[in-house]
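Onboarding guide, step 5: your first structure request.
Type a short instruction followed by the sequence, for example:

Predict the 3D structure of this protein.
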Amino acid sequence: MKTFIEIGSNNYDTLVDLAKTNSWKGIIVEPIFEVFSSIERHPNCLYENSAVSEENGVKDFFYFNQITGWGSLEKKHVEKLGINSLLLKTVKVNSLTFDSLCIKYKINNIDLLKIDAESYDGKIIRSIDFVKYNIKQIDFEYNHLTENDLHLTQNYLIKNNYKETKRTSGNLYYSKI
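The system replies with structure tokens like these:
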């Protein structure tokens, strides 16, 4: 059985087809409780109501409750959207490192890692120990990363034997060489 992890799931619209099959099992990670509570459940998936960051603990998470899925651990990213700051909500969320998430769910081999963490994608990727975790494919949203963050992330992936296989207007796809 293949394994996926989706970080920043929202309603896991990108991987819902995998969640519905018997040939995949997954971990769905979403930090906003209201969104997490509304995610359709599937028996082959586990669900984690947390953010993923460089440290375990509790972190501030910033989002607009009127726009599902538009939130980040980085306040400046959410403020960039140009929506009335009076609508900005700050909530405390549980945060796990990628390592802690994988230890909790006893997972080392991952066929697909999908990250949509609204400007935090690069930090998550650069926190992964690719010696410890065998990840075949990584898909992440790059259009909210700074040029420097994107450069650091791409170099980290290349250094760890990944090759860019696809690029869309918002996502990059890397596969293990």
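Each response can be followed by summary notes, for example: The CA atoms of residues 3 and 65 lie 31 Å apart.
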